[in-house]
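Record type: monomer structure entry
Structure origin: computed from sequence
Chain ID: A
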Amino acid sequence: MTRKIVVGAFLLIGFLLINMNAVAAPPKVMITKVELGTVNPKMVNDGKGLYTSKCVACHDLDQKKIGPTLRNVTKERSPEYIMNVIYNTTKMQKNDPTFKGLVVKFKNVPMPDPNLTEAQSRSLLEYLRSVAK
């Protein structure tokens, strides 16, 4: 009887910790290779929604805002670089000289981490590829 109570208590605590996000997520790894093919329409649609909800407050496609314009970012930066800026924002701001320079250029306003998954980051990349001129 006591054993069942102890096991039940551990299961309950584990369930609560998982639901409260108290269990640490695995660390994000840097993106080293992105395979590009033709632009994926479903990913573009998903990426457009993410852009609207996560990016548009600071980034316009054509006019400078709090951050740089994004219309042609896929022509200026590698897919891996863009993915890491989106997916590993904090690491990139701390370690990448180009990113550090952009923060300085845009009045030392750091980019908040959008907390996207790797798949969401890839969809956002697809959207940016679709709007490039």
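Annotation 1: The chain has one domain: 30-131.
Annotation 2: The mean pLDDT is 88.
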